[in-house]
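We modelled each protein-ligand pair independently. The example shown here corresponds to the magnesium ion entry; the chain sequence is given first, followed by the ligand as SMILES.
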Amino acid sequence: MTALLEQEIADYTARRDRLVDAIHAFIHWLDQHEGVDGDRNLRLLDGAEALRRDRLTLAFVAEYSRGKSELINALFFADHGHRLLPSDAGRTTMCPTEIFYDPQEEPCLRLLPIESRLTEETLAHLKLKPVEWVKLRLDPEDRAAWPQALQKLRETKRVPLPAARALGLLDARGEDENLAADGGVDIPAWRYALLNLPHPLLEAGLVLLDTPGLNALGSEPELTLSAIPNAHAVMFLLAADTGVTRSDLEIWQKYVHKHVNFHIAVLNKIDTLWDEMRPAEEIRAGIERQVQDTARILKLPLEQVFALSARSALLGRVKQDAELLARSGVLPLESLLAHKIIPARREILCHAALHDMEGRLAGHQARLAERAHQVSRHLVELSQLSGKNRDMVQQLRDEAMKEKERYEATAERFRQLRAQILRQGEELLALLSKENLSALLADAMPGMESAWTTGGLTGAMRRLAEEAHERFARAGRMGHNIQHFLHDTCERFVQMHGFKAMQVPALDLQRYRQRMEALVREAEEFCRDPANLVLEKRFMIRRFVAGVVQEAVKTYSLAAQETDRWLQLAITPITARVREHKQVLDERLDNLKKILANAEVLQSRMLEMKQELATLKQSRAELDDIAHALP
Ligand SMILES: Nc1nc2c(ncn2[C@@H]2O[C@H](COP(=O)(O)OP(=O)(O)OP(=O)(O)O)[C@@H](O)[C@H]2O)c(=O)[nH]1
Ligand SMILES: [Mg+2]
C-alpha cells in the first residue's frame, strides 16, 4: 500500500474517532446534567457504533480478463511480494469476491457453493449463516501459501446440461455454445467469496468487490441491484489492446453508468503499447488519444479516466523499481482514491453524524442560554426590590401570577398540539414501517409471481413503483406539515412569552426517494428486456423480484430510522423549553411569595441565583468544549 492511501485512511480514522469521542463526552455531560436516560444514551451510542462499522466499498467491474484482479493486487497487496489474487488469461475470477478485514476473525476465505442458487435464500441472508459456507483458513504465519489457497476463486466444475439450466447458469448465447465435448457444462464452483485479509485500509473500513465478467454479473441480481449501485465508487476497466468492445459497453451501460455513485474508467494494459522501436512521444500521444476516446464514449470527464498498466505497477512495487512504477501510470489513480474518493465518503459519513450532534448540542446550548437569560432577568428584578416596600413586592407578585396563568394557557394548548404532532409522527412512521411495506408487497407480489408474461410483470412492478413513490411523497408532505406546525408553535412562544428564537430542522428523505426511483427504473429495464422474460428464466425473474424487494425493504427501513431521529430532534427541544419556562415562572412566584412573608429571604435568594448563573455558565462552557472538539 502506498504512503498516500495510508495517510488518507489514517486521517479518516482519526476524524471518525474524534467524532465518537465527542459523542461519548456528550453522553457523559447529559448523564451529569440531566440524569441518566438509558434509551437516549443507547440512541446516541448507536450513532457512534454505526460510525465505527461504516464501510467504504470500491467495486471493480469489467468484462473478464481486463485486469481487475491484477489492479487490486497492484493497488492494495503488492507488499505481499507476489501476486495475491489469481490473475490469468481467459476467465479467472469465477465468483464475486468481497475483500475486507474483520479482526475478530482469523484471516480466511469463505466460499458459498454454487448450488445455493437453488434455494430461495438471498445472499444477504446466506452471509449470516456460516454453515452454508466452506471455510479455508489462511495461516498468518505462512503468507507465502496464500496465493495457492486463493486459487480456489478460479474453480469451476462440469455438470450435466439440465443441472446448469436449473441453476440458471446458461447464458443467452444459446445452449450449444456452453456445451463441452462430453455434453457437460462448465459452471463456477462457487457463488460468492468472502475474503478476510489483514490490511490497514481494510481495517479502516474499506471493502473491495472484485467481480467476474458480463455473464456472471447478470446472473446475480443482488450484485447488480444492490452491491454495485450501493458501492461508493466503481472502477470500470478496459484493456488498451482491445479498446472498447461491445460487451464492455454493455456492462458499462447496464451495470455502471446509470447509477449515481462515483465512476472511474481505467484503460489498463498500456504496456502492450510500449514499443522500444517507436518514439516515446508517439506512444504517449497514442495512449492519450485512447483516453480521450474512452472518455467520450463513456461520457466521463477526462479526470476520471486513467491509462495504466496494472501488471507493471505490481511488478514495479514488488521489485521496488520506482521508474517502472512511475511509468505504470498507477500513481495518479492512487492520488484520486486518496484525495477524492476516500475524503468524499468521509464527508458523507461524518456529515450525517456531525449534523446530528451539532443539532443536539445547539438545542442544549440554546436551552442553557434561555435559562441563564430568565434567571438574570429575575435577578435584576429582585435586586430592584431591596429596600422597597411590601406594596411593590405584592404588585410584582400579582404580575407574576398573571404571567404564569397566561403562560399556562399557552402551555396547555401546546400540550394538545404536541399530542397531535406525536400522533402525526406515528402516522408518518407507520407509513414507512415494515408492516406497511409488507402489505404493499403482498398486494403486488401475487401479481408478479403469477404474471410470467412481460405485460403482467411490468404492470405489477409499475403498480408497486407508483405506490412506493406515492408513499414517499406523502411522507415528505407529512414531515413538512409537522415542521410547519412546530415552527408556528415556537413562534407563538417567542412572541407571547419572550422565548429566544428556535430552529426546527427539516426532514430530508430525498436520498431514499432517489434510491426507490432508481430501483423502479431498474425494474422497468428488466421488464423491457425480452431476454429476461423467456420461460427458462422464471427463476431469474423470481430472484430479480426478491432482489428488488430486499432493496426496497432496506430503503424503507433506513428512511424510517431517519424519520424517527428527525422527530426526536424536532420535538424534544421545544418540549423541554416549555417545561423549563414553567419552572422559571414557578420559581419566580415562589420567591416573591417568600419575600413577601419574610424580607430577609431576598438576599439569600439572590445569592442562590448568582450561584445558579455560575453553574449554568460552567455547563455551557463544557458543552462548548464538546462542540469545539467536533472534527
Ligand atoms: N500486459 C498486461 N497484461 C495484464 C495487465 N493487467 C492484467 N494483465 C493480464 O491480463 C490477464 C487478465 O487479468 P486478470 O487480473 O485476471 O483480469 P480480470 O479482469 O480479473 O479477469 P476475470 O477474473 O476473468 O474477470 C492476466 O493474464 C493478466 O496478467 C497489464 O497491465 N498489462
Ligand atoms: Mg479476476
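The chain has a mean pLDDT of 86.
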